[in-house]
Amino acid sequence: MSVEDMPRVRLANLPTPLQEMTRLSRLLGGPRLFIKRDDLTGLALGGNKLRMLEYLIGDALNKGADTIITSGYLQSNHCRLTAAAARMAGLEPVIVFNEECPKKFSGNMIINHFFGAKMYFVSAEKKSLSPQQYHEECAKKSDQLVQEISRKLKKEGKKPYVIPRGGRSLFGTAGYFTATIEIYHQLLDIGIKASYFVLPVASNGTITGLILGSQALSLENKVLGFSVLRYASDAKKLIMEEIEKDAISLGYKFPLDREKFDINDSYIGDGYAIPSKEGMQAMKLLARTEGILLDPTYTGKAMAGLIDMIRKGYFHKDDKIVFIHTGGLPILFADYLADYL
Ligand SMILES: Cc1ncc(COP(=O)(O)O)c(C=O)c1O
Description:
By secondary structure, this protein is α/β, with parallel strands linked by helices. The chain is 42% helix and 15% strand.
């Protein structure tokens, strides 16, 4: 199936702006820097996941679904936007969180509440488990609960549609495949050929679409992803597998150029969703030079990586870098962030 043939519902305000960050570039004495404002996709405070949800909800409607089930962390932007997208399409949102119910809602959780998402929470026995094992146990339990809820709804005569955590799927890839075409046209209008697309990476849907899109259009740019979750070697392996699978599904036969993408895991800090000092500094710098807000979990860490690599001379003076602002701004209102200011 080609991307053009995939069912799609319009949820996002597209195209999002592509802006040049002249002050930041001057301050760093670095290459020309552009920012693709996918934080401005619109619906429910925007973000990258809306592009994926256009295809995922399109598939759900095509299959006659009446309920959407997904899962993730309390501050998951994917869960917030899935609830919003479901409501916009007239569907019931159900979210399974792989964390305990918080005493007080903040950030994305408040928005989930407004959308009236049915929320479930899982927890595991903390004793004798490392933080990593605890997280894995909770994720396993939430996957099981998603399946249980789906089975129960089917028995009740409902038509549930399960969206994988983070929206990672062929449909997710389609979202950033079409975004690549959008960026290509915007760059063409200003007579620029990008040397790099730079972005944060977690469940891989965004980077997979950008790599596949860039290679399908034979663009010159490399794609540099800053992992906020996995070691680079694990992320790279997964991305390779996913691109190869998605390329076959989309009917592309070109050999994948492995030199044209890279993953850097040096800016994760103390772990996923834990704000880092460098990330917070990058957020302040961008706000104060360009008037643009970033988030502490994804874009702040990726921007910290980009700034550091510019300072260390990794890029050429005449490179043109497009940073993909993937959104995540409701996390600015998560109650824990005040401890890191
Ligand atoms: C704001 C934001 N940026 C980046 C990402 C990472 O995108 P992906 O999961 O497609 O790698 C996410 C995913 O949760 C996100 O919410």
